[in-house]
Every structure is written in structure tokens, then in C-alpha cells.
Amino acid sequence: MMSIIDWNQKTTEDLEDFLKPKIILPGTEHYAGSYQGWAATDHLPAMICACENTEDVQAAVDYAQKMKLKLSVRGGGHNWEGLAFADGGLVIDLTRLNSISIDTTASVALIGGGVKSIALIAAADEHQLVAVTGPSGEVGVAGFVLGGGYGLTTSSHGLGSDNLLAAEVVMADGSLVHTSATENPDLLWALRGGGGNLEWSLSCTFSYILQNLYWPAGSCSTSRRQNKYWRDTTN
Question: What's the pTM value of the predicted model, to 2 decimals?
Fold first, then answer.
């Protein structure tokens, strides 16, 4: 459900009060643990917001705008350039938005913006389904999809972006928008391979197609073997 709160109309003080329990600052106990990405960089964010729901993300986006802070998003944090951590800026940390709900009838997963590939692989495998994911279990699914999404199953099931059905998107002004093939379709088109630091857009949930694991003969498909490998070998 879309939020009825207009966070853009809140004062800076209101936003600070709301976000205070979620903000992690340099020099505090949790900062070093939260500031861990795949690539080593010299980026030092001014603050990290550990978001737990859509409203947290909206408030953080509006706060960054009002304070004129650079804004970045951490989903999986698996990026060559360390784009998840804006130097001197505010990081929207989505790692707690890691819910996964699978509709086995439609073969669709509804997942949070902080879900990593290894978690989606394991959840899909329980239903003998496979998700198009990156070549490492630590890759965030949202960032993977927004970057196009080339992985081990691309030859059989397409790019990650080909499997994106719908998304709830937090826009730059903090508003919440739903996009699908029938609702704001231009935005869905842009999300499919938009790249860069668009990961914050998929801060809520998005629908992702899952594929059948097995060949008609019932033997284990290449897709399943690949996903089992990453499930079993990736921390």
C-alpha cells in the first residue's frame, strides 16, 4: 500500500526525529560493520540510514534533499566503484528490506530491495524454481536487475531485467510510485537496465519472474545445478 504521509512537507527537524533511531554515524560502534562493501574504496559516508520499511526510505530521501547531501543506496553493495557508499553523503541501507514471498502458481517472487542472490536462490529452490541471478550469491538482486543482469542462466532465461515485472519506486522527491506493464510503463522500461545508482528506486518490493528448474524428462537442469552450486559454495 502506498504511504499517505507526504514526507516532503516535513521539516528537517521532523525528519531528523523520525530517522534518529535508524541513523549510524562515523565513530559509532555500528558504523564499521555497516560500512562494508565488496570493493575497497576511500569513500566515507557522513551517515548511514538502516531502513526497515518504505517510510524510512522516503524520509531519508527527503532528508538528503533538504540537507543537500549526496545520496547513495546499498542493496548488496557488490559494485566495482563502491557506488553504494557516497563519500560525505547519506547511504540508504536496504539490507534489512530482505523479505521474499513466492507465488508458486504464477512463478513470481515478490522481494525487498535488500535481497541478495543467495537468499533468492535458496527460497526459489524450495519450490523447484530458479531465479536469474548474478554469478555470486553476494550480489544484490535489485542492483543486478537495474544493471541489466547478466548471469549464469542468461542464455536460457534472459537477462535479469527481462524478468522484472513490477516495482514500487521511491522517486527523488520522496513520493512512492508503482510501475508495471500497465501502470507507469515508461518507468518500468527505464528500470530495466537503467544502471548507475538507481538501486534506491527499488527500495520497497518488486515482482520477479521465476523459472521451472526441470527438463520435461524430470532430470536436474543446468539452471538448477548452477544455482545449487552458488547456494552451497557462497557465503
Answer: 0.82
